[in-house]
Amino acid sequence: MNEIALLIAATLSAGTVLAIAALGLLINERAGILNLGAEGMMLVAAIAGFATSVHTGNDWLAFGAGAIAGALMAAVFGLLVIWLNTNQYATGLALSLFGAGFSAFLGIRYTQEKLAQRPSFEVPLLADLPFVGPAFFKHHPMVYLTVLFVFALMWFLYRSRAGLVLRAVGESPESAHALGYPVRRIRLAAVMVGGALCGVAGAYLSVIYTPLWVEGMTAGKGWIALALTTFATWRPARVLLGAYLFGGVTMLQFHLQGEGVQIASQVLTMLPYIATIVVLVLISRNPAWIRANIPASIGKPFFPGS
């Protein structure tokens, strides 16, 4: 039972990285912008957060540095695709490639650095409960904040005026523009918020989840987060569920290796990516279902006055 509790705890921690990034991408896509640069933003934010933590010893400053790094990269992307109308797919891929190279360059001096011992976090009283304590109540506060953010985002998208405007921009920017809403500025704000969340995910990865810096340490998590938005049909609660599902598959490979299962380690490492491909294939078998949920203007440029 204790091993199962530890596996659940590891799943929640691993899923948090994916959930934060995917929720940021969901906000982008709800506004009609598809950003394929999540991997690059997460890598630059990871080294920004790690470097900040090395020099200050403060996790929250590290998260802030990661958020700023992600938002700045997203702002550049937004200016290119929203105002200069560059291709969203090509620009996002360029951002991802740039982030991988730039983070590797910045991180050269930090490859041997180690963070100070992190304080242990636990919810008083609840953490002492058998099984559920170690499984659910001994996590970094960011794990719980992510869950709360999902509910806040659900309220924002479906209950607030600003959220309804954001969705309108993603569905029909021409109609939103005709009603007097600044479509381009709304989209840029959504892109920057999404980038900031990808940045927080990157910082969480390098400071809390695996407290070290290694070149390319995201290992495809940005792409999995991107796939998660489709898997979740652009709904926050489903994003969280999907993130924990993929986090569980990731942790399962380590659990099986620890149990001495006679399967090649390379096959076990492939499990999260195989799961991603299988889910996307299953979803693509019903294109009508995707069309019913996908923001209508996603990936499409908008020209005011056209």
From TrEMBL:
It is found in: Cell membrane. The chain crosses the membrane at residues 6-26, 33-54, 60-82, 89-110, 141-158, 188-207, 213-232, 239-257, 263-283. Keywords: Cell membrane, Membrane, Transmembrane, Transmembrane helix. GO terms for cellular component: plasma membrane. One of its GO terms (molecular function) is transmembrane transporter activity. It is a multi-pass membrane protein. This is Inner-membrane translocator. It comes from Leptothrix cholodnii (strain ATCC 51168 / LMG 8142 / SP-6). The lineage of its organism: Bacteria, Pseudomonadati, Pseudomonadota, Betaproteobacteria, Burkholderiales.
